Write a sequence for this structure.
């Protein structure tokens, strides 16, 4: 009987553990779920930007009926709620695996300044929700020119 000697590489194992911990911490601070099979939570990806006159929020919501999306603003907290419903399985179709996520979600974003709530607009195109929140005059940044002598 022959024995095979495999060298032990503890640093390789430590590197794998470090990568897993880095991914865990990144997902925690990004408030994004860690995919752990059936138990993973679904959250849409969001972009938040600021122009001179408004804040703009874009959320990827593919496959969601706009009727199933709720947008609200309370004390400078924008909340987007919705539900992505699972398609009905076809009879006689045997799934080997399902990677698409389904279910309800809630995303909240704290806005850095005041907005004109009566002028907020939202549009939905190609699976992307776009919410434009016009700033109040007080929230707009004022430029101060410096005189050079």
């Amino acid at each position: 009987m022959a024995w095979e000697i495999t060298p032990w590489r503890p640093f390789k194992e430590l590197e794998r553990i470090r990568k897993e911990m880095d991914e865990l911490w990144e997902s925690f601070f990004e408030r994004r779920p860690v995919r752990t099979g059936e138990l993973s939570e679904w959250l849409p990806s969001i972009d938040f930007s600021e122009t001179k006159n408004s804040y703009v929020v874009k959320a990827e919501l593919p496959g969601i009926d706009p009727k199933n999306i709720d947008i609200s603003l309370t004390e400078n907290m924008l909340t987007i709620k919705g539900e992505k419903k699972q398609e009905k399985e076809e009879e006689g179709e045997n799934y080997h695996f399902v990677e698409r996520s389904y279910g309800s979600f809630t995303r909240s974003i704290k806005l850095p300044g005041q907005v004109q709530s009566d002028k907020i607009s939202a549009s939905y195109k190609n699976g992307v929700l776009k919410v434009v929140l016009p700033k109040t005059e007080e929230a707009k940044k004022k430029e101060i020119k410096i005189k050079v002598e």
Observations:
- The chain has a mean pLDDT of 81.
- The chain has one helix and seven strands.
